[in-house]
Write a structure and sequence with these properties.
There is one protein chain. The chain has helices spanning about 15-30, 60-75; strands spanning about 1-10, 35-40, 50-60, 75-80, 80-85, 90-100, 105, 110-120. The chain is an alpha+beta fold and about 130 residues long.
Length: about 130
């Protein structure tokens, strides 16, 4: 079962409060809630913050999970590059949208965003 969508994005935000506003704008575009798992400055480009986000998905098949996730992702940005990370028994998919390769984001400040969905149990992110 595909329980959650894990999102990661890099955004131009001054602080955590600004990050929460960006996530709120993303949330306005989605039919389900989205929450912040972590916020930190991006070491490589300090003007950006790395945000790790999570939203419920609740789909039972890989096809439904991928289609639903793409429909939601397209509300945030277009286009997305897709990859099948782990073929075989498990199903795991990843999508990436990046402004430096032509993606357009509907939420100001986002430069890069990724989603990951998987049919295996996900534990909280640990860095």
């Amino acid at each position: 079962m595909f329980e959650t969508i894990r999102w990661r994005c890099y955004a131009h935000v001054a602080d955590q409060r600004s990050a929460e506003r960006v996530v709120g704008r993303i949330g306005e575009l989605l039919p389900r809630t989205i929450g912040i798992e972590s916020y930190k400055r991006y070491w490589k480009f300090p003007e950006l913050a790395e945000l790790r986000l999570v939203s419920p998905l609740g789909c039972s098949t890989p096809e439904d999970a991928l289609l639903t996730t793409l429909q939601w992702a397209w509300r945030i940005a277009t286009p997305w590059s897709l990859s099948d990370l782990e073929p075989g028994v498990r199903h795991e998919f990843e999508g990436i949208a990046s402004s430096n390769i032509g993606a357009t984001f509907r939420v100001a400040g986002i430069e890069w965003m990724e989603f990951t969905i998987s049919d295996r149990d996900e534990s909280p992110l640990v860095d």
